[in-house]
Predict the structure of DUF917 domain-containing protein.
Amino acid sequence: MRIEESDIPALARGCAVLGTGGGGDVRTGALAAARAVREHGPVPLVGLPDLDDDTLIVPLSGIGAPTVSHEMIHGEDEPRRIAAEVERLFGRPPGAVMSSEIGGSNGVAPVAWAAALGLPLLDADGMGRAFPEVQMVSMYVAGLPADLVVMSDVAGNVVTIRPVDGLWSERLARAVCVASGSSALMADYVLTAASARGAVVEGTVGRALAIGRATAGASDPLEALRQELGAVRLVTGKLTDVERRTTGGFVRGTATIEGTGADRGRTLTLELQNENLVATEDGAPLAMVPDLITVVDTETAAAIQTEGLRYGQRVTVLAWPCDPLWRTGKGLETAGPRAFGYDLEYTPVEELAEARRHG
Amino acid sequence: MRIEESDIPALARGCAVLGTGGGGDVRTGALAAARAVREHGPVPLVGLPDLDDDTLIVPLSGIGAPTVSHEMIHGEDEPRRIAAEVERLFGRPPGAVMSSEIGGSNGVAPVAWAAALGLPLLDADGMGRAFPEVQMVSMYVAGLPADLVVMSDVAGNVVTIRPVDGLWSERLARAVCVASGSSALMADYVLTAASARGAVVEGTVGRALAIGRATAGASDPLEALRQELGAVRLVTGKLTDVERRTTGGFVRGTATIEGTGADRGRTLTLELQNENLVATEDGAPLAMVPDLITVVDTETAAAIQTEGLRYGQRVTVLAWPCDPLWRTGKGLETAGPRAFGYDLEYTPVEELAEARRHG
């Protein structure tokens, strides 16, 4: 299939849902994608099996300081400079663009970057959701060496990092990003199609499109979305308290939702660090990272990003299982609750739900 | 000729003189150089005319934050990783090492780096002295594009920067350096022998050796040094006041020298910013950057670096002309008094001396 301009709104809605509150404002990525598709034409969406083993895949994401997700629109020069550097380093041009992070703006914007480069977009990403740090990608969890980062900024600088590991990758990329004015486009883990197998989360662009389309025209958008996601409804209610501190672009805080209707008397607390990371009720967790937790408007089922949470909103909190990769030992070590400072043993969202049903 | 272990002390003394107070403690570079020569053998010193036009020259310097000069000893891995990256980028290995900065530790340490790489050292550098900022090099003044920086740190990371200009080069290299723990080895302006002609300060390693040797066994070391440098003696006296503030590794301050003997009654003030930048008497300048101003021990003629200035020292201040490159419009714009924040019209040290003789 090809991604047409008319597909962008659905893709953006789906990426917002998969952003679990973070990943940057999808409207920014959607704007860039629509403009680029209008200018360069539709972008072919290809699967890994469609690519020759040695096809180079360039995972791209906007990086801001201090978080990966950054909604600044990058022009066409940044992806072109990165593609040129990749060609210089590998002796052949890239054959496909991949989103590093399907959640939020970085899930939609790669359509613009692929269009600008005249390349197909791979139906995959490196997270299956949104995460705030560079090393929180499937390629790292799969054990691929974090041995190359190529960055470019609005000024035109190109920086190539050969880090000794993922943590140095994060540290150096962040420093370059800050020096570049806190915004850069980044290619992390340039892959061959062969090395990408088992190291990326496949099908997530298609999934975002399906999620975005599930609610369109549905008589019960919320239920349509819940079914599409295979999600547990944690609570439906009213946002009664939002505590948010923005420290250097990083949002931390909590949101409190008091149940209404059938949920009257229940109180759910969301722990936020850009993304929604832990949902608790009476001190017991209902869902936790790396499982996905998204706050949606109860009526429209549109995802509400962390920055958009407001007192009084009528919301429903949905939670559903992450990609199995994140549930491995290395996956949980990289992006489990303890990686974010929560003293919680990871328990899958479906087990927590099952326990409540029988509890 | 070849640089033997027995040459290192003279080279270090000369580099201290050319460091005009800055450039990092030469003892650190001397230690590394002596050790490497002992292990790998003497280092051939070659001139530009000895090299084929397409021979790659790698200018190396230790970079600290916030100044270029950094006296941390880099092991053998950093130059090897940089050489490997240069070979990868250019398709052929480097053929010679050059000191980016002959003044201070960075003038001596390249002997160690050349020895570790089994390469000759080019008898040239990028300053003919010491300067604190990345863009204050002859290659920049000569108009060579600042289009490539290769850095490596103790951890083993390699970062390649393709900056759009010299100021971005400085900004990004500095950021990477800070993230690397404030110390890295850097190759700036990888040159071919052809492009180096007219863009480097030739003969400065030989000059440092000659300066270091001039005082050895001399009955009047101070006069021997003055003659070797072609320097003006600004004052001989006693250090009566040293004001120094170290802000993030950058030393700023003033030193006051009260004349003794024939200079009794005179007071000379030195403005310091890592290097000795301006010498004034009764508010009138006697010498100013980019001309070289060095404080030496009156008895031994050993250079005293800025960090070593102490109340009561018996010192003589010498000043002599910089390389003609620094007296061009671009040279003065890059490293003249105004580039350091002094509201002074640059006047060559020999003209100021001539005017005093007739004034």
